[in-house]
Each structure stands twice: as C-alpha cells, then as structure tokens.
Amino acid sequence: MLESLGALTSSPWIYVAVALSVLLDIVVPVLPSGVLVITAATAAAAAGTAGTAAGAVPHEVPDILMLLLCAATASVLGDLAVYRLAWRGGERLDRAIARSRRLTTAQERLGTALSRGGGILVVIARFAPAGRSIVSLAAGAAHRKVREFLPWSALAGVAWAGYSVALGYFGGQWLGASWLATGVSLLALFAAGAGAAFLVRRPRPATA
C-alpha cells in the first residue's frame, strides 16, 4: 500500500511535506493537500495498529498530533499570506475582483458575515474547492480587520485538519493499510467539499 509515498510517510520529512502542501495549496493546488494528510494519517494508524498487535509501536510512523498541528498551522499561515497580499494588492487586484462575479459575491457575503460575527462562512469555505483562496482574497481586498478574519481562519484550519486526519486515521484503523481505506477517506473528504461548495454558493434569502 502506498508504495510511492511509503518512504515519505516513514520519514520525518512527512511533516515538512504536509506543511508545504497545505501552505502552497491556496495558491498552487498541484496536489490536493488533503490527499497527503489522509495518506500520512492512514499509514500512521495502520502501522500503529500492526505495531500494537506485535507488542511494539514503530517509531518511524507519523505522529497524529504532529500531523494535525502541521496541517492546521500551515493552513492559517497560507490564509494570512494571501490575505495580506490582497490587502496590499492595489488597483490592479481591485479591478480583477470587480471583473470576477465569484470574487465580488464572496467579498460581499464575507463582509456581511464578519461584521455580524458570523464568520462560520470562512470555516465552511475551507472545505470547498478553491473556497479558501476566494475567502482569503475577498477578506484582504475588502480590508477586513485581521481580528475579524484570523480567529475564523484558525478555526477553519483546525476543523479541516482535524477532519482530514480523523478520516485517514480511523480509515486506517478500520480498513487497514489499503487503497480501500484511502479511497473511502478521500471520498468522505470530497463529499464534505461538495457539501461546503453548495452551502457557500447557495443564494441567501433577501432580508428586509
């Protein structure tokens, strides 16, 4: 199982790989970062189960808490980097956002949500494809205060990282180190992304 990633998941470099993947995923989503997080958590759970059965847990498997910490921290740092770039973007970025209906709508909805203390939109968007990028860009371009954006970004990062690690971990424990375990976990991750995308794009009812 996971021949191509086996050496990486059994190396301390897995934490660097996870952090860089999550950090850069907001700009260059070459490999969905959730795939790497789930793969590492699955390997850790399966190896830990096998080690426990044999009477010893191997030391060369990823630590679940470290995976969670790396993924959540990198998620917040990536959000803040894009937020600050959008804050300083200037007229060119403003014109680009004005030409994008998606970004304009996100900016309006996000501004309303944050001003009302309902930044749960930031958390939901973290699970949607490209939602993290759109929300961070919109918050920065709208010059939302960092104290309004950062707590919700942190909550979103912890929620997403916790969900991804839990999928891989429990999938590995229940189904073992197999492509089936990874596939089921990824399906659950993509299902959450599809649900989040639906909630983010759903028109809000008009209010008086």
Give your account of this protein's structure.
This protein has 208 residues and is mainly α. It is built from 10 helices and no strands. It has helices spanning 3-9, 13-25, 33-54, 64-87, 90-99, 101-115, 120-127, 131-141, 146-175, 179-201. Helix 4 crosses helix 8. The longest helix is centred in the last third of the chain and has 30 residues, at 146-175. The protein is elongated, with a radius of gyration of 19 Å. The N and C termini lie far apart (57 Å). This is DedA family protein. The chain crosses the membrane at residues 12-28, 64-86, 149-171, 177-200. Residues 58-169 form the VTT domain. It holds the Pfam family VTT_dom. Keywords: Cell membrane, Membrane, Transmembrane, Transmembrane helix.
Task: Please state the structural category.
Answer: mainly alpha
Write down the secondary-structure element order. Answer: HHHHHHHHHH
How many helical elements? 10
Evaluate the radius of gyration. Answer: 19 Å
Mass-distribution shape:
elongated
Largest sheet: none
Number of strands: 0
Domain VTT: 58-169
Pfam families: VTT_dom
Keywords: Cell membrane, Membrane, Transmembrane, Transmembrane helix
Family: Belongs to the DedA family.
